[in-house]
Predict the 3D structure of the following.
Amino acid sequence: MILLIECVVLCILFTLIILPVQYKNPIRMIMSYPPNVIKRVEVLPQYKDVIKQEEKKHVGKKIFGVFFFAFVLAIVAYLSGCRDFATTFIHVFVLFAVVNLYDLIVLDWGVFCHSQKLRIPGTEDMDADYKDYLFHVKGALIGTLLGVIVSLLSGVLVYIYGAIFL
């Protein structure tokens, strides 16, 4: 029951982190857009140099996110009763997988593919590219790999904590 509640809370938090930023300024999330949309934005004069700036930020955000979420989710797992590497890994991976699946089905396929408000000005005619469901599946697979990494790190953190303090 605790795991289910954690999954729901994390999905809500994920939505509150992602959607307001994307609705306010879709260009800030450009690195998560389909490749053809990115190519179009690169040639639009109003976005000159934006892709390069966002690309640099994107890599940094991903690296920071892996370590940040490994730490936070290790705490969540520990507070949920996980006291060793294996149970922490499984707990965190389930949390990550549920949020990843929610992101794919609800946010990507449900919201992103169909919301005109998330279209970057100058790409409104690219409806088929925005609705590239396979692109989002590939993103979810990458998210699963990130989930494995975060879960491994969380497991190691709980293991080290237990070895030092328990």
Notes: The chain is about 75% helix and 0% strand. Helices lie at 2-24, 35-43, 50-79, 85-112, 127-130, 133-165. Residues 81 and 125 are 50 Å apart (CA to CA).
